[in-house]
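User: Some background: our group keeps a shared notebook of sequences we're curious about, and every so often someone picks one and asks for a predicted structure to add to the entry. Today it's my turn. The entry only has the sequence so far, pasted here. Could you supply the structure so I can complete it?
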Amino acid sequence: MVAGSAIVAPGADAAARAWREVSGQEAGDVELVHEREKSSVYRLDRRIVAKRAKPETVAVERVVYEQLLPALKINSGYLGSFEGEESHWLFLDDAGGVPYEFYSESHPEAVGTWLGSLHGLAAAVVDEFALPDRSVGYFLGRLARARDAVVRRLGEERLDAAGEAILRRAIEQCDRLESYWPELERFETEIPPTLVHGDFAASNVQVWGSVVIVFDWEKAGRGFPAVDLIRGLDLARYRDAYGTVDDETVEQLARYAKILRPLTHEWARKSPEKIERYHAHMGDAMAALGWESSWEADRAKRVAFRSTFPADEELCGRLTEVFGDRVTVFGREPNPQRSTFPSEIVRCLAGGVEQPPLLCKYGLSHKHAAHGHRAGSRYEADVYERELAPRGLGPSFFGATTIDDRTWIVTEYLDGAVRLDWTDPVPAFLSAATWVGGFHRMLAEEPPAFLRAYDREYYGGWARRTLSFAGPLRDRHGWLEQVCRAFEATAVPLLLESPTVIHGEYTPHNVLVRGEQILPVDWESAAVAAGEIDLAALCDGWPADLVQRAEAAYVEARWAGLPPCEFGRRLAAARMYWALRWLGERADWTLGAKCAQRWPRLHAAAAALDLVAG
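Assistant: Of course. Here's the predicted structure to add to the notebook entry:
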């Protein structure tokens, strides 16, 4: 027990010991503020806030508190951290403030100034730090997950007619909201990505006069600033402090905030009555943007869907070829998890027997852009049929059919599976590293002859394309020409050693997770190459401590914990390739915001190989 504690709380002794290690001082009274699934928060001697959580839970917060905010010279109230055997502790001074109140005369001004300064300053440096994605694409993922959760509830729960109607309306609204998402994505390209808090709620914002202290950066990341625009914020103060946005832009950000902020909550788990309130709020937010929240308001989208995909008669005929028996289709819907080519979910009977939901993907048979990186859908179908299906890897493969320049791939639709970057990321991230390590071990002995093999010309082409596309940026990145030459001379030979079969684009976006299953999809970039490329793609942009754990999981799965001596250097070479792969894709990407974070990553990987000064 802590001497003199106002409340004898579970964990109080541990909080006091951790604080003593950090500060050399006694904790005084210890109060348990709240205890959640992933963390506990205590108050020590009234002003010190202590947060206990697992290392992965506070990994992003530590980057923000220990690196990013100090670099911006923004006061965070951070007092230090303590690493216990199973938990980490963070300590902060709340400055004696009170929670943000939107109706206060002074709070909206103070918080508007603070938030505008944060977003404006951080936009210039955020790419230098390892932060998770908080772009509008991340929130689209959350929307899709929530919709899927509501769909599951409809099938699993016993609801009265009113409850069912509420959930159906919520699903329809999610579909409608997704149809407008391209507008949000276009607007995002006009705003530089910055540090966003991700949970900028009144309870996490303390105000004391003009001093603002913000807690709980667990959901922070690099992304679109609208999600932080809290209710009542003084937009004029925000605009002035930001410095590079005008009134119209800020007002539009505030409108988009009303769309994105609800998506930070787990609303789909709530009661139907609370979902109805969410539905009403989102409907108002959509109306403010001129978006209709019901398909009834505009059926053109359904017409557009039908025009994008084959007619029912053609679909039945082609699926009959695949199954070798008469097929009757009784249900079709767009695939919420999009990829390079259009795809849809099809429900059908084959030979009078109901089949599991199918995923029909309609692609080009031939290679398309990207310096030979993607080999087309006919090639992908061969990967499924000749390599994955015989080993029981990935979704069930039913077949493929090719006419002219288009190939249809028919696989099982993985109901309940979500993309790795849409789920609780840390356990799935480590499992994905283990999976790909085992996959590389399995196929390293005799890579199949039909697969493309990356050669010196292929690798070198990415460096030459990047150098060519960089144009006006070459003065800013004065080291680029040296690094590109060194990549061909030093890194490429490393990548040509110890080949195996790789996925080729093993990013979290292409890895589905269902329970404990790891199910990579989109195999048209499969090749014979260095396995470290898949590891580099998976780990790109993740916090350093998680990357180290993923590397260890990969090494254990591929080499039983005993990697070859060149593993570290080959991984650095793979990271160089991965950066060049994106920088050399298209000239507009090379010069634009889309690939801005690739430059420091390329430089860091080159420095790891001593190809440029660190």
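Suggested note for the entry: Confidence is low (pLDDT under 50) at residues 1-8, 295-306. Residues 136-156 form the longest helix (21 residues).
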